[in-house]
Specification:
single chain, Rossmann fold, 296 residues, Tumour Suppressor Smad4, alpha+beta, 8-stranded antiparallel beta barrel, 8 helices, two-stranded antiparallel ribbon
């Protein structure tokens, strides 16, 4: 039985009043979330992965209604945001029980203040909220490679495509400025700016981050030889990459990233293109209500 059908059955058994709606295709959840907010629903549940949850959260926040709560049911590739909330990506029954229990937590979100466009809608420029992170460089190369995979998904998909790109990605020049005045520049393998600890199907890229710490966490991985890149990859699986002299973490309320040309970047697992040569992001503390286990 498909996971979506399992969720339908479990939700019908455990909740008295559920309205189901299914998107017609990729990105269809955006219109459904807008309609649900406009129709006055207090809880909007998104079935999918990080990209779906991010799109729904973005529309909830953009609606201006501060009494709408996001519920999530895992059915995607990475499912990293659910890990940050203490949910297992593989246990459908547990996810529905948590949803039915209805415990609400308030979490931080990130916001990209400069305009960017999704590669699915390249003419629509907007500012964007994010749940997990934004990423530049190697991160985008891995997503591009994974998009062409036919038989893999989840953690295994990310690991295999990442290993391929370790030996192919040429590196990226950028300048990073924090809200507190710190500045860094140089050639990077990857830069991520995180609200939550995980990405790529469970990699703790910002191991000290939580979704309630009121900070963004910039993980700077400077360019290195192929062998050093491989060592970093192995360390990153356990969150130990932060001990390497090729890595520096900076925590602050916001960051400005400058490039020589407009950049493609990842936002919660989906690629976007910046309108200009600068991407600015900041934290919005306690901005979103989510249904989660207690003590997120």
């Amino acid at each position: 039985m498909r996971r979506i059908e399992v969720y339908r059955q479990l939700l019908a058994e455990q909740l008295d009043d559920v309205t189901f709606a299914e998107s017609a295709g990729p990105g269809g959840e955006v219109a459904l979330a807008e309609q649900a907010a406009a129709d006055g629903y207090d809880v909007v549940v998104a079935v999918g992965g990080d990209g779906t949850w991010s799109n729904v959260a973005n529309r909830i926040l953009a609606s201006g209604r501060d009494n709408v709560t996001l519920g999530i049911l895992p059915n995607g590739t990475g499912n990293d945001f659910c890990r940050s909330l203490g949910l297992s990506p593989s246990d459908a029954g547990a996810a529905v029980k948590i949803l039915a229990a209805g415990n609400t937590e308030v979490v931080d979100v990130g916001r990209v203040e400069t305009e960017s466009a999704s590669e699915h809608a390249p003419e629509y420029w907007e500012t964007r909220y994010f749940l997990n992170l934004i990423g530049f460089g190697f991160d985008v190369a891995v997503i591009d490679a994974a998009a062409g995979a036919r038989f893999l998904k989840g953690e295994l998909l990310y690991k295999i495509t990442a290993l391929q790109q370790l030996f192919r990605f040429p590196g990226l020049e950028l300048r990073l400025k924090s809200a507190g005045g710190e500045e860094r520049d140089g050639r990077y393998l990857m830069l991520t700016v995180s609200n939550a600890p995980f990405f790529g199907g469970g990699f703790p890229i910002a191991p000290e981050a939580t979704v309630q710490d009121k900070k963004l966490h910039a993980c700077q991985i400077f360019d290195a030889s192929a062998l050093s890149r491989l060592r970093l990859f192995n360390l990153a699986e356990r969150g130990r990459h932060v001990t390497s002299n090729h890595v520096e973490m900076l925590d602050d309320s916001g960051f400005r990233i400058e490039f020589s040309t407009p950049q493609r970047f990842e936002l919660d697992g989906e690629t976007r293109r910046s309108a200009g040569r600068t991407v600015e992001a900041r934290i919005l503390p306690a901005a979103l209500k989510v249904i989660a286990p207690k003590s997120t």
